[in-house]
Write a structure and sequence with these properties.
Length: about 260
């Protein structure tokens, strides 16, 4: 599972006109360097848990693997911040290793690195999923109820994947893309089909997040926050239902509303 994702420290707090000493929880920031077939591929700044899932989801999102059978071995050394991956195939000349990639936690991606494979890897959704309004509301309630470490630190992104019924898996990370990659890696490890699943996300649905959802292969993404204009356009083009502002028993459907059914 990795190291602790939060730590306690002594701080000085100003409140009610006074300074006082107290303790506070803060999110752990952890660099993980991924080597693929002996080549240094990327360093991801992340929360130090579910690291194998993170590596698998990240590599799948970048088109390095598409299924677990393409993995010869994976070794995580969290004491040194390393992940060593051996594949059953060579990467070829598509990836240039001349420049080391540093994937920062603020957005989870280097922009140039992010967009070079999107056209190939992003999938038009073929989902048959249909949701009732109460299922949409209940999944967001589940996400908020599972976010214990966020409540302690205020420094993590929260995401979950669900079939809207019994299956619900939750991950947290300082990087928003990392949280989604951990969920993707979880599903890859366990051969869980994602086509008829929904992603539930705590943050804004940006174009990058929408493309990540398309790469994973889900047909619905839910957020308590807003989408961007480009994210909505991409959702329309990629046949993904994007739902935002899920708050106070209300929500807005921005694309493909036909999947949301009234009783």
């Amino acid at each position: 599972m990795g190291k602790d994702v939060s730590k306690e420290q002594i701080i000085v707090k100003y409140e009610n006109g006074k300074l006082s000493q107290t303790t506070d929880q803060y999110a752990t920031e952890f660099p993980l360097t991924i080597r693929v077939n002996g080549n240094e591929f990327a360093t991801i700044i992340c929360s130090p848990n579910h690291l194998e899932e993170l590596v698998l989801g990240f590599l799948a999102s970048e088109g390095v693997i598409s299924k677990i059978d393409e993995l010869e071995s994976i070794q995580i050394d969290d004491s040194k911040g390393g992940a060593h991956v051996e594949l059953t195939h060579q990467l070829g000349n598509f990836f240039d290793y001349s420049t080391k990639r540093m994937i920062a936690s603020c957005c989870g991606k280097n922009r140039e690195f992010y967009f070079q494979n999107d056209a190939v890897i992003a999938k038009t959704s073929m989902t048959h999923i249909e949701l009732l309004p109460n299922q949409v509301l209940n999944m967001m309630t589940q996400l908020q109820g599972a976010s214990n470490i966020f409540k302690q630190t205020g420094g993590l992104h929260n995401a979950a994947i669900s079939d809207c019924n019994d299956f619900f898996e939750h991950r947290q990370d300082i990087g928003r893309h990392n949280a989604l990659d951990k969920l993707y890696g979880y599903c890859i490890q366990r051969h869980i089909p994602v086509r008829d699943k929904a992603l539930i996300f705590s943050g804004r649905i940006s174009s990058e997040i929408l493309i990540k959802a398309a790469k994973i292969g889900v047909g619905v993404i839910l957020s308590k926050s807003a989408p961007t204009s480009l994210a909505v356009k991409l959702a329309q083009d990629l046949n993904i239902t994007a739902i935002g502002f899920i708050r106070n028993r209300k929500f807005n459907i921005y694309s493909h509303p036909e999947r949301i059914k009234n009783l």
